[in-house]
Design a protein that fits this description.
By secondary structure, the protein is mainly β. Helix content is 0%, strand content 55%. The mean pLDDT is 96.
């Protein structure tokens, strides 16, 4: 089993920055993909960014150039640096890990709230 715990959310004004962290613990198989997803009220959950255990990254078009995903050397922490935040970035941000071995398994954290408002 893998546990994912997010932190770093909060209330910020438009244009400000936040850094989200996700700590992964338990038996983590590789290769895997870790990522951040978000869900705004009344909307479906959407992908924000992912990073593979080989460090290949992928971003949603809406955050390219503003958000950066990264991991620590041990690949048990995943970060999301969010710059130039906009009100439309307001959402519950959840950490995700997908193992790419068989059986493929998906894990989710409980999320951390990000609110961008003046």
């Amino acid at each position: 089993q893998v546990q994912l715990v997010e932190s770093g959310g909060g209330l910020v004004q438009p244009g400000e920055s936040l850094r989200l962290s996700c700590a992964a613990s338990g038996t983590i198989f590789r290769p895997n993909i870790m990522g951040w997803y978000r869900q705004a009220p009344g909307k479906q959950r959407e992908l924000v960014a992912t990073i593979t255990s080989g460090s290949t990254v992928n971003y949603a078009d809406s955050v390219k150039g503003r958000f950066t995903i990264s991991t620590d050397n041990a690949k048990t922490m995943v970060y999301l640096q969010m710059n130039s935040l906009k009100p439309e970035d307001t959402a519950l941000y959840s950490c995700n890990l997908v193992t790419l071995i068989v059986p493929r398994t998906t894990y989710w954290g409980k999320g951390t709230q990000v609110t961008v408002s003046s």
